[in-house]
Write a structure and sequence with these properties.
By secondary structure, the protein is of the alpha+beta class. The chain has three domains: 2-110, Beta-Lactamase (2-Layer Sandwich); 114-184, Beta-Lactamase (2-Layer Sandwich); 233-466, Alpha-Beta Barrel (TIM Barrel), CATH 3.20.20. Helices cover 39% and strands 27% of the residues. The chain has helices at 2-20, 28-39, 183-232, 269-278, 282-297, 300-303, 315-318, 323-334, 353-365, 382-386, 397-402, 407-422, 435-444, 460-466, and strands at 44-51, 54-58, 67-68, 74-75, 81-88, 91-101, 104-109, 124-129, 135-138, 155-159, 163-169, 175-182, 235-244, 249-260, 266-267, 308-312, 341-346, 369-375, 392-395, 426-429, 448-449. The two termini are 86 Å apart. The structure holds guanosine-5'-monophosphate (2 copies) and manganese (II) ion.
């Protein structure tokens, strides 16, 4: 590419000179023209006027004394006369390339066609004509036979006893670019790869593989660990109070599943619940939740007949025909009256409303109320809500957080509250953490609250002491 760029400038420089020149040889105007061409080019060092094998004048200062250029080395198919290794009177220790068309010649630095920045020690770069193998530029000896490696094609890579040689022919000029790397150099490169790059690669990929296995094992292990946790009875419930701000009393509590392993490690429900759902084990977990409620509650409702306990259900539970029967058994065992139990399900559990509807109907027949959990985060349409037999909306914490922050989402809360009023639903604001949130939500008409601001999840024994 670099050799082609130089050739481009040579071609356009020469054609400009030949067409523009109406001046007498070596007149002042003639020399000015040559200087302008030389100045406007990056690669052309100087422009000169040639007579026979002599340069008679040029754009160079004080070079009006003719000097010998030597015999042409090559005449190209397009008629360009080329000379290499030309010494100029003003710089006799350097040699230049001179390319001539008609009476004009361009003087080029020998390195420009192969000037590609940093070059490794021993690497040979060259630009050579394809016909006659004349060296346009090179930084070392290029054996004439190298050109023959190209054969008929435009690209070739060849290995000799000393070099690996790569050749590319220009498709616009009679030029071939050559890069040759000494075999010895290649050995150092191979050594570097073998001693540095490969070990680093092995270490890095081993670590990566270990990480992937670790996470895959953890992932695939989780269902098995949940199964053994069920056997080992590692699950328990905490109950987070729900406050009626009209009376200031705790009117109910949400049962939240907790898992503490024998080694003391706690695993959060937002990790193991989705894992259990994915592994098709959530019904087993829900069974345990109901069993834990039965154990915890005992005769609780005898003493607190107006209190309710809400239980979270997954989508799979809502679509399970046995769920209602399980609740019926629980309800009987703990002596729950109408309104003592609430079932919470997220909006997304209702994406197949027909299937969920049957379970909801049966639960409603048992005197159990239904709450839509995390409301606002799902996609339920208002019309589908209207057709569901639901009594509570739990506004998701993210919306509760927004009421004292972003105006846009707090508008959404306003709409949720309006919607709830129209549909005759009670609203419970979830994850309430500050007095400001309570103030705003109360002013919007929210009556029930759940959150750390009021009370944290606690054991039912603890909760019993506080009501
Ligand atoms: O407590 P918190 O980190 O407690 O609960 C995180 C999520 O886990 C909440 O979305 C909550 O609804 C859900 N969750 C808590 N307990 C249960 C449960 O017993 N069953 C189901 N399906 N989800 C639960
Ligand atoms: O079922 P649901 O998605 O509503 O789960 C309630 C979750 O919110 C539980 O993880 C519970 O521990 C958590 N929680 C309850 N009150 C607060 C609160 O005030 N702040 C925060 N950050 N989390 C809360
Ligand atoms: Mn919930």
């Amino acid at each position: 590419m670099r050799a082609e760029m130089v050739a481009d400038q040579v071609t356009s420089g020469l054609s400009e000179l030949v067409t523009a020149d109406q001046n007498a040889t070596c007149s002042e105007a003639n020399i000015s023209l040559m200087r302008r061409i030389a100045m406007s080019s990056i690669y052309i060092k100087a422009v000169g006027r040639v007579d026979g094998n002599h340069m008679v004048c040029s754009s160079l200062e004080g070079s009006d004394v003719p000097f010998d250029l030597g015999e042409p080395a090559l005449v190209s198919p397009s008629g360009v006369i080329a000379r290499g290794d030309v010494q100029l009177p003003i710089a006799e220790d350097m040699s230049f390339v001179v390319l001539q068309s008609g009476d004009y010649a361009l003087i080029l630095h020998k390195e420009h066609p192969i000037d590609t920045g940093e070059v490794e020690e021993g690497v040979i770069l060259a630009a050579i004509t394809r016909t006659k193998a004349w060296t346009f530029a090179s930084n070392g000896d290029v054996p004439a036979e190298w050109i023959s490696f190209l054969g008929e094609s435009d690209r070739a890579v060849e290995v000799t006893s000393n070099y690996v040689i790569s050749l590319i022919a220009s498709d616009r000029y009679d030029l071939v670019g050559i890069a040759a790397i000494p075999i010895g150099e290649l050995d150092t490169l191979v050594d570097h790869i073998a001693n540095v790059a490969i070990p680093i690669g092995i270490v890095a990929s081993t670590i990566l593989i270990a990480i992937i296995f670790y996470f895959r094992r953890r992932h695939s292990e989780l269902p098995a660990v949940i199964r053994s946790a069920l056997k080992r009875d590692e699950f328990f419930l905490e109950y987070q109070p729900i406050i009626d701000t009209d009376s200031g009393k705790w009117v109910g509590a949400e049962a939240l599943l907790r898992w503490q392993r024998r080694n003391g490690e706690r695993i959060r429900p937002d990790i193991f619940i989705p894992a259990a759902e994915e592994a098709g084990m959530i019904q087993g977990v829900t069974d345990r939740v109901l069993e834990l409620v039965r154990r915890d509650v005992g005769p609780f409702f005898k003493f607190h007949p107006d209190f309710y306990i809400s239980i979270n259900l997954s989508s799979a539970d809502l679509h399970d025909v046995q769920t209602a029967t399980k609740f019926q058994n629980l309800s009987t065992e703990i002596g729950a009256a109408d309104g003592n139990l609430i079932v919470e399900a997220t909006e997304t559990s209702f994406t197949m409303p027909d299937k969920a509807r049957e379970t909801i109907k049966q639960l409603r027949n048992l005197g159990i109320s239904i709450a839509i959990d995390d409301f606002g985060t799902g996609y339920s349409s208002l019309s589908s809500l209207k057709n569901l037999d639901v009594q509570y909306l739990k506004i998701d914490k993210s919306f509760v957080d927004s009421v004292t922050r972003e105006a846009v989402t707090s508008k959404v809360v306003l709409h949720i509250v309006d919607l709830a009023k129209t549909l005759n639903l009670e609203i419970i604001a979830e994850g309430v953490e500050s007095e400001d949130q309570v103030k705003v939500l109360k002013s919007l008409g929210v009556r029930f609250f759940q959150g750390w601001y009021f009370a944290e999840p606690q054991s039912l024994d603890q909760l019993r002491l506080n009501i």
